[in-house]
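Now for today's protein:

——
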Amino acid sequence: MPLIYLNKQYNTTLSLWLLTEETSFFDPISRQYNKEIKKETGKNIERKRQWLCARHLIHNFHNTSQNLVKTRAGQPFLPHENTYISISHSYEMVGVLTSDMPCGLDIEKRTDKLRRIRSKFVSKDENAEDLLKLHLIWCAKEAMYKAYGKKKLNFKEDLSVSTPDRVQSPSGTFTGSLKKDSLTINYLLSYEIWNTYLLVMAEETHRDTT
């Protein structure tokens, strides 16, 4: 299936693809990333399709010809470009977010599995009385974690969100923050609901190191 969503604003671009193609569809990108594919995806065919699809989105809808690389912490970036980038995929849904500010994207297919691990990422001050809000908190913290770009974050203690009283379909906004040692980062969180999928984007709005 082709691109299902493309939203270009003054400083961000979001692209989404519902993945139904065979791996051969992405042969042009496969040749471009020939050295990286095996190292990144191994023998997992589904992972390979998602990996190639993300790069297909980057090169066709995010105005870059450069190959994507990663930091030691695993954060993707484009060398020699002042562009921040985040990638996410869940089952058939693959997404790419680019921005001129630090950003993070997370996509999740809604399932009951998060109920079993809620104690690991939901604080007592966060409103998660139903499954949709539980997913909203999880996706938001994943997106902020990606925007931060470094490891060793405790989702329950270092990240917090202020979920809306009412989750409006199909989209809305709320806020979140990261507090780690002397660092505080505030984020604008935007969500979109796509049938059984939930998508959250995090964009950094303020940073304080006092």
